[in-house]
Amino acid sequence: MSNRPLQRLVRLQDFIWIALFAALIAVCQSPDAPKVSMLVGLAVVQVLESKIPTVSSTRSRIFWIGLKLALCYLLIGYSGDLQSSYWLLLALPVLSAATALGVGGTLIVSIIAASSYFSFYLLFDRPANFYMDSFDVSEVVLRVVFLAMVGTLANALAEDLRIETQRSRRSAEQLSVANVQIQQAEEAVRRSERLAALGQLSAGLAHELRNPLGTIRGSAEMLTRSVSAENEVAREVAGFISSEVDRANSLITRFLHFARPLELRPDTADLTQTIDRAVAGVERETPGIAIYKNYAPEIPPFAFDAELMERVLYNLVLNAAQATSPGGAVTVKTRAAGDAVEISVIDRGAGIDPKNLGSIFNPFFTTKAAGVGLGLAIVAKIVDEHGGKIAVESEPGKGSVFQVLLPMRSAIHEAI
């Protein structure tokens, strides 16, 4: 069991309040059951006020303040009216209002507390009454002013505390955002370093492998021509050799695309047309998946490499379609985000395992049985070259959202 509920129920302040009210009861003159009951009730209200879960709402705060006002009024009236020693307890609801209701609420509660105390003078201090001779009116006014001063001072202190708390909260939020941005920047740097190193490695391997692969394919073709038609096994094996060489060459070509430095050719283009071409290509490959388009009409044409960006969108939409069950749907959405455009590719597929979210843009990382793991790595590389950002949000069993943030102003400046 967590210690937090226990810490919430039992605090040092609670023991202090109980001790203080116990002292009031102990020194009480002419103690009787009603007086002691009202003191105990006021102590219970003071302690429980911060324990009830709904105390954070304005309505419940007003309820507790009103309850304390009522108990204080009854106690003062029962124990001597204007001459009661318990008049100072009216400061409790005033202080509660100062810490919870702001300037206006504090003023109202202070007026109610002062008026309730002054009402004893109006109700009981008649000219023939004993109190008129033994109790000075100026003392009543001083006590009323004292209550107002206590409320005003407490409210000023509480307001300073609220301002400082809000400032600290904003600083914490800004620090949290800054930490996220730093982490994203560090991840982008690490990804770029990995891309550069793996790109050089891939280029070297591709160059070294293509020559022997060419020799193997040529030998397989000669073997096919020299083997007699009756030797079907040898001809079939030669065919396997040729097809596997072709597959290896295709993989090497993808490695070279990944390793080759990107040469952006930005030109003013319509992003919606680029997306339409990518979507059309995916629709031909996945006819059982509906692809919905939700474009922001306010996005103007801007400068970017339309060919490379079409490859980015094609890969993202194709991955989303492949993750979606037959009969499902994928949504491609755009919206303006200041000087950038945000492109979201949304699916309701199986989602991505949280442990893989940090690795999906790494080269050669894949969860597909026949995958190579270069598709999203190339996508991230193209987006980075455009000065943009790519991110993913996913929940297993509910789908994924890939977001590409593509700057418009910087791309235009590069084109110029």
Short descriptors:
416 residues; alpha+beta; five-stranded mixed β-sheet; two-stranded antiparallel ribbon; 13 helices; disordered N terminus; disordered C terminus
Summarize the model shown:
The protein is α+β, with helices and mostly antiparallel strands. The protein has helices at 4-9, 12-26, 33-48, 58-78, 91-100, 102-124, 130-134, 137-226, 232-259, 271-285, 306-322, 375-385, 409-415; strands at residues 267-269, 290-294, 302-304, 329-337, 340-347, 389-395, 399-407.
Chain-wise SSE layout:
Blueprint: H1 4-9, H2 12-26, H3 33-48, H4 58-78, H5 91-100, H6 102-124, H7 130-134, H8 137-226, H9 232-259, E1 267-269, H10 271-285, E2 290-294, E3 302-304, H11 306-322, E4 329-337, E5 340-347, H12 375-385, E6 389-395, E7 399-407, H13 409-415
Parallel strand pairs: 2-4
Antiparallel strand pairs: 1-3, 4-5, 5-7, 6-7
Helix pairs in contact: 2-3, 3-4, 4-5, 4-6, 5-6, 5-8, 6-8, 8-9, 10-11, 11-12
Written overview of the protein:
This protein is α+β, with helices and mostly antiparallel strands. Helix content is 63%, strand content 11%. It is built from 13 helices and seven strands. The protein has a five-stranded mixed beta sheet. Helix 2 runs antiparallel to helix 3 and helix 10 packs across helix 11 (306-322).
